[in-house]
Design brief:
CATH class: Mainly Beta
Number of strands: 18
Helix content: under 10%
Largest sheet: 10 strands, mixed
CATH topology: Immunoglobulin-like
Number of domains: 1
Distance between the termini: 29 Å
Number of helices: 1
Radius of gyration: 18 Å
CATH architecture: Sandwich
Strand content: over 45%
Order of helices and strands: EEEEEEEEEEEEEEEEEHE
Mean pLDDT: 87
Length: 238
């Protein structure tokens, strides 16, 4: 988490990330994850493949995290996401919003919830889970707008992740807009940038943060864009 998120004038709405099992030890493995993020619309489509590695039937309670700052939920039915939908093997599935106590979130500044669903696995069964959600961008005192996606929560499944692809598509930004990434992509094609990992246990270093200038602020000509937006700076449409 960047220091700017702790400032009083931060207007961060929400961030989310990979699901984790809500119980303790689980025999379910994450074989793969394909994460695609679009900005500035903050549209996310994620497709996972999970396998029950045990020899018996298992019901996995799966939680998808959402956190926000300077935004408060009065009940578990409220969220800063514009929408959240989920499918299992191509069929829509119900998801419940569960408010939780999270020591990493200051209760005076924000909230933490989990989007929770239960999935049955036969012995050795592999199932596909798809999540699609739309959030609002965050903002801080840099000033900038940004979006974060948490990858490291996936390390709670059994064993290492088989493979993971993370993509950010910034083609929706106005041509000429500068934007920054906290980590240099492994591959770029225009304004689409991607990272790949195989057989690994993710850490916070694998998380995504993409930032772009706030539209209502007049930036000085001498602005250090790497300081404002991140170490890997690009120009939309350039």
């Amino acid at each position: 988490m960047v220091a700017a998120l702790a400032m009083n004038d931060t207007a961060f709405s929400a961030r989310s990330g990979n699901p984790k099992p809500m119980e303790g030890d689980t025999p379910v493995e994450m074989l793969s994850a394909d994460i695609r993020v679009k900005v500035p619309s903050c549209e996310v489509t994620v497709t996972y493949s999970f396998r029950n590695s045990s020899g018996k039937k298992v019901t996995a309670t799966m939680g998808f995290p959402e956190e926000g700052y300077d935004a408060f939920l009065d009940s578990q039915n409220k969220t800063w996401f514009k929408s959240f939908k989920s499918w299992v093997d191509g069929k829509p599935t119900n998801v419940l919003v569960q408010k939780v106590n999270d020591d990493s979130v200051d209760p005076d500044m924000g909230y933490s919830v989990w989007w929770v669903k239960r999935i049955d696995f036969a012995a050795g069964q592999t199932r596909t889970v798809k999540n699609v959600f739309v959030s609002r961008p965050g903002g801080d005192a840099m000033p900038r707008e940004f979006f974060e996606y948490i990858v490291h929560t996936a390390r709670t499944w059994k064993g290492p992740i088989g493979k993971l692809r993370l993509e950010v598509d910034a083609s929706g930004l106005k041509k000429g807009t500068r934007y920054g990434l906290m980590a240099k992509p492994l591959k770029s094609s225009g304004d689409v940038h991607a990272w790949y990992w195989e057989k690994f246990e993710p850490t916070e270093a694998n998380n995504l943060m993409v930032a772009w200038p706030r539209g209502d602020f007049d930036y000085p000509a001498e602005t250090d864009w790497k300081t404002v937006l991140g170490p890997a700076v690009f120009t939309a449409g350039g």
